[in-house]
């Protein structure tokens, strides 16, 4: 699925520890229009689980979480709904 | 219950980081948070203390300090960032400041105001109180 996802916005939080990636994502999402697809890049394994938790609770949609094992990071794709 | 009122007394790094992280994400998620920094928790925000990174810490804190290739935001940085994203207020304990003869200028700029106990309790009356 992720190969077909073309993000409108990319948030690169690689290197930041929890909760940095989520803070970066929230800061960005608050400024975006509904229907925007965002790709969050994170090297923090806990964020790869925790970010989708927040996304769902906040009422947005998690589209996919892809691990780039060789490069040591994850892509979390979300779509804003409000 | 409409949010959290955190009484931060500890100057231990792990507790400070935990409070900073949880308060930041809650506030960024539009959950109101008040932090009342008192006693040791207030002194953790002293500018000289921050500059010297003189904090009591255990294993996790030491690992955090020694981690390489990671950008780890400190508790005051997460709090400062969260204040721009949601309803997070930070108050300094008046008694603690009076005892040490300090003013807000001696502390990191995250603070909104100085409060006594009654003032804090007014802020906390509709919130879940957490003591750290």
UniProtKB/TrEMBL annotation, chain A:
<dbReference type="GO" id="GO:0016740">
    <property type="term" value="F:transferase activity"/>
</dbReference>
<dbReference type="InterPro" id="IPR036868">
    <property type="entry name" value="TusA-like_sf"/>
</dbReference>
<keyword id="KW-0808">Transferase</keyword>
<feature type="domain" description="UPF0033">
    <location>
        <begin position="11"/>
        <end position="35"/>
    </location>
</feature>
<protein>
    <submittedName>
        <fullName>Sulfurtransferase TusA family protein</fullName>
    </submittedName>
</protein>
<dbReference type="Pfam" id="PF01206">
    <property type="entry name" value="TusA"/>
</dbReference>
<dbReference type="InterPro" id="IPR001455">
    <property type="entry name" value="TusA-like"/>
</dbReference>
<comment type="similarity">
    <text>Belongs to the sulfur carrier protein TusA family.</text>
</comment>
From TrEMBL, chain B:
<protein>
    <recommendedName>
        <fullName>Peroxiredoxin family protein</fullName>
    </recommendedName>
</protein>
<dbReference type="InterPro" id="IPR027396">
    <property type="entry name" value="DsrEFH-like"/>
</dbReference>
